[in-house]
Design goal:
The chain has 286 residues and is an all-alpha fold. It contains twelve helices and no strands. It has helices at 3-6, 18-50, 58-68, 81-114, 116-131, 138-145, 149-173, 177-185, 190-225, 233-242, 246-274, 276-285. Helix 7 (149-173) packs antiparallel against helix 9 (190-225), helix 9 (190-225) packs antiparallel against helix 11 and helix 10 runs antiparallel to helix 11 (246-274).
Length: 286
């Protein structure tokens, strides 16, 4: 009897039923939500006891949130007209700038990571540009692009391209040389090697860079709207601050925190699904 016939069959892990997955997700959410609820209750009690104008209680802040953005009809998902205007403006600029920076960062990072000549030539310039804080360039972007959507998108794209570019360059440098040598032996062309071998191998680091860039994009979205903008969450924030409407100002801050939490959760879910093959491959190797 051959060795292959006596080998025990591989046991595949049982797939969890969909109901079990949903129950597990709900249980995980409940285990984490209690801390948020406890913090909100403590915040409410302390702010009402102190009675400080600059720190309104959560109930006042959420009332302002409802009036500003979530007091609309059910047909519009309870979004007000102002919410439609502010969210479409802010999120439109955010995702356009993030997507443009992601595409440019992946392309430039792949080229720099695979070319020692480009890396040595461009490294000082890239390190110089990366060290320049994006807020200091806002006056320059205003002079070049004028106030408006273009200036805001460019501000976001410039600030968030670096995590994607550097992570991509680092990821493509760590591709196994054996994989590339095997591809060359089988006649795989340079473009196909990049698409089918190099970028998939670097995908975990690329996704890590995109995730960091998304959080930076949210910050720069607000920053770009603080100057000369008439719509958007940042514009609402600065307007509330200037008119000393503190509940509205805090409502904008809380809204940004909620958006950051949602962006991170959705991105992690997409990353887990899109990189499931990579996780499975690592388990097989181990």
């Amino acid at each position: 009897m051959s060795e292959a016939s006596t080998r025990a069959p591989a046991v595949l892990p049982a797939r969890r039923p969909r109901g079990g997955v949903l129950r597990g997700a709900a249980r995980g959410f409940a285990e984490r939500a209690w801390l948020v609820a406890a913090a909100a209750v403590l915040w409410e009690l302390v702010t009402r006891a102190v009675d400080e104008t600059y720190f309104p209680p959560p109930t006042t802040i959420f009332r302002a949130l409802h009036e500003l953005w979530f007091g609309g009809p059910a047909a519009h998902l309870f979004l007000t007209d102002k919410a439609m205007d502010d969210f479409s403006t802010s999120l439109g600029h955010l995702f356009v700038g993030w997507a443009a920076a992601g595409a440019a960062g992946i392309a430039a990072g792949a080229a720099i990571g695979r070319s020692a000549v480009l890396r040595d030539l461009l490294s000082p310039v890239l390190e110089f540009l990366r060290a320049v804080p994006p807020p200091t360039l806002v006056p320059f972007f205003i002079m070049v692009f004028q106030l408006g959507a273009t200036m805001q998108v460019v501000t976001i794209a410039f600030g968030v391209v670096w995590p994607v570019l550097l992570n991509t360059a680092d990821g493509v440098r760590t591709v196994e040389p054996l994989q590339l040598d095997t591809a060359r032996v089988f006649g795989v062309g340079p473009v196909r090697r990049i698409v089918t071998i190099i970028l998939p191998a670097a995908a975990p680091k690329i996704f890590a860079g995109l995730r960091v860039a998304l959080s930076f994009a949210l910050i720069l979205m607000v920053l770009s709207e603080l100057v000369g903008s008439t719509a958007g969450i940042g514009s609402e924030l600065i307007g509330a601050q200037r008119s000393f409407e503190l509940p509205r100002m805090w409502a904008g801050i809380v809204m940004l925190g909620i958006l950051g939490l949602l962006f991170n959760a959705v991105f992690m879910l997409l990353e887990r699904r899109l990189l499931a093959w990579h996780t499975g491959a690592r388990r097989l190797e181990s």
